[in-house]
């Protein structure tokens, strides 16, 4: 029997009761003859003592600087605490177990602190533990540079650790356990009638993740696609079947029409910038260069002759203001926006999808501030205050409730 990688998210490892449930789950796979690698996130969500956001707060409350190397060192502690407590829980049930950090697991990354990319996994230590009969608990979300600095893989990065280890160890299964029943047609916190998607392709799931469906990290989906490994998303707290992420899209009986839209994703904390600048002004090149140099990523980009409109994540707003102010450019900002994205591999070339989006949002009294599309998505920028109303309107319009 092969290796199973199981990843458990922050809520899943947050109480003694749930850690016991996880230990029993892992031990059950181990007793069936599998070698078991667990990947764990930091315990709980914002406010919980060792949650990643709480740790970031500890630092940022002292000084609002961006020493990403030290922030990574601090952020990595949440997962380290979680892994050691989880390993102790497994041992308390009579099975040998070792907790290891990303560094000890041989996860080597580049130097992009806060959003590092894995360049190599040296699996020998992990394999040693496994062949000695131990369950191994690996800290999610972290790695180490060749120079020995601790890095983190980007928010939600424990999923990526699981996918990376699944690939490097040629695992038989990669299971991602979380606090919902799988990848759903929308965030169930916003749309209570959202449904579990039983099977979804890497491409669609990647797009959902990039556009805000945080149930699985987009880098994890990309790694799984690269290795051809199937990702299973399941609920830690029940026995639901969950979602299979693979090359296949949902199986549809021949008698049924496939749905045009698979899911609606949303991303908040978006700011819209409008810059007054003529097309032949030299400062066009200057601000675009500065964005590239400082790593600002623009989205929903509309460039007109004497006006440039685009969105950025709220966290990039200070950088953008500094750049534009430094170039003496005239600009305005619309804060508290939200990007709503309809995802569906069938969208491309189908007439009428945009019409349905526009009409259903307009009927619900929601103003569309900007829009954009790709071959699998149509996105609208709206005010954050109308998010729930908007996402429910689209969910209903595309019959995702059924
Ligand atoms: P974990 O700590 O287990 O990694 P996350 O908070 O990162 O969990 O992701 C799970 C959350 O993702 C759910 O609680 C849910 O609110 C949110 N979510 C957003 N979009 C979706 C979606 N389309 N399907 C399922 N969950 C979603
Ligand atoms: N703890 C990290 C975060 O909150 C990684 C993860 O949960 O996947 O982003
Ligand atoms: Mg997550």
Condensed summary:
The chain is an alpha/beta fold and 402 residues long.
Explained architecture:
The chain contains 11 helices and 18 strands. The chain has helices at residues 16-31, 52-60, 68-92, 124-131, 158-168, 202-210, 218-227, 283-294, 317-326, 353-363, 387-397, and strands at 3-8, 35-40, 97-100, 107-109, 118-121, 135-139, 142-145, 150-152, 173-178, 199-201, 231-235, 243-246, 263-276, 299-304, 307-313, 330-343, 370-373, 377-383. Strands 3-6-2-1-9-11-12-10 form an 8-stranded mixed β-sheet, sandwiched between helices. Helix 1 packs across helix 3, helix 6 (202-210) runs antiparallel to helix 7 (218-227) and helix 10 crosses helix 11 (387-397). The mean pLDDT is 95. The chain binds adenosine-5'-diphosphate, aspartic acid and magnesium ion (MG). Aspartic acid binds at residues 9-10, 41-42, 52, 78, 140-141, 155-159.
Write the layout of secondary structure elements.
Layout: E1 3-8, H1 16-31, E2 35-40, H2 52-60, H3 68-92, E3 97-100, E4 107-109, E5 118-121, H4 124-131, E6 135-139, E7 142-145, E8 150-152, H5 158-168, E9 173-178, E10 199-201, H6 202-210, H7 218-227, E11 231-235, E12 243-246, E13 263-276, H8 283-294, E14 299-304, E15 307-313, H9 317-326, E16 330-343, H10 353-363, E17 370-373, E18 377-383, H11 387-397
Helix pairs in contact: 1-3, 2-3, 5-7, 6-7, 8-9, 10-11
The structure holds adenosine-5'-diphosphate, aspartic acid and magnesium ion.
Aspartic acid binds next to α5.
């Amino acid at each position: 029997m092969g290796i199973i990688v199981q990843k458990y998210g922050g809520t899943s490892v947050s109480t003694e009761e749930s850690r016991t449930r996880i230990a029993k789950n892992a031990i059950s796979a181990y007793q069936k003859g599998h070698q078991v690698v667990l990947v764990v996130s930091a315990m709980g969500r914002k406010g919980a003592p060792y949650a990643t956001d709480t740790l970031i707060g500890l630092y940022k409350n002292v000084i609002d600087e961006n020493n990403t190397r030290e922030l990574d060192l601090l952020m990595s502690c949440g997962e380290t605490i979680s892994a050691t407590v989880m390993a102790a829980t497994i041992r308390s049930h009579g099975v040998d177990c070792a907790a290891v950090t990303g560094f000890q697991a041989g996860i080597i990354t580049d130097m992009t602190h806060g959003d590092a990319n894995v360049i190599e996994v040296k699996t020998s230590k992990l394999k040693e533990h496994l062949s000695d009969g131990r369950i191994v608990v690996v800290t999610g979300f972290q790695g180490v540079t060749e120079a020995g600095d601790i890095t983190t893989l980007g928010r939600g990065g424990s999923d990526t650790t699981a996918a990376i280890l699944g690939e490097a160890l040629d695992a038989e299964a990669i299971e991602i356990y979380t606090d919902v029943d799988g990848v759903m047609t929308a965030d169930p916190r916003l749309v209570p009638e959202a449904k579990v998607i039983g099977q979804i392709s890497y491409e669609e799931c990647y797009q959902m993740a990039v556009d805000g469906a945080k149930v699985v990290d987009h880098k994890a989906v990309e790694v799984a696609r690269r290795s051809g490994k199937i990702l299973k998303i399941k609920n830690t707290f029940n026995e639901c079947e969950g979602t299979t992420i693979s090359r296949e899209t949902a199986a549809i009986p021949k008698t049924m029409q496939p749905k045009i839209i698979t899911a609606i994703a949303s991303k908040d904390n978006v700011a819209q910038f409008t810059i007054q600048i003529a097309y032949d002004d030299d400062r066009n090149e200057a601000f675009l260069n500065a964005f590239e140099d400082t790593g600002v990523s623009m989205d929903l980009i509309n460039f007109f002759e004497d006006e440039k409109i685009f969105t950025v994540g709220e966290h990039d707003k200070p950088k953008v203001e500094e750049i534009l102010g430094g170039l003496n450019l005239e600009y305005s900002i619309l804060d508290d926006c939200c990007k709503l994205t309809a995802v569906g591999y069938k969208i491309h070339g189908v007439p009428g999808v945009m019409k349905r989006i526009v009409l259903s949002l307009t009927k619900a009294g929601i103003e569309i501030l900007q829009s954009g599309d790709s071959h699998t998505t149509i996105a609208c920028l709206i005010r954050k205050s109308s998010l729930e109303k908007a996402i429910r309107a689209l969910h209903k319009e595309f019959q995702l409730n059924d």
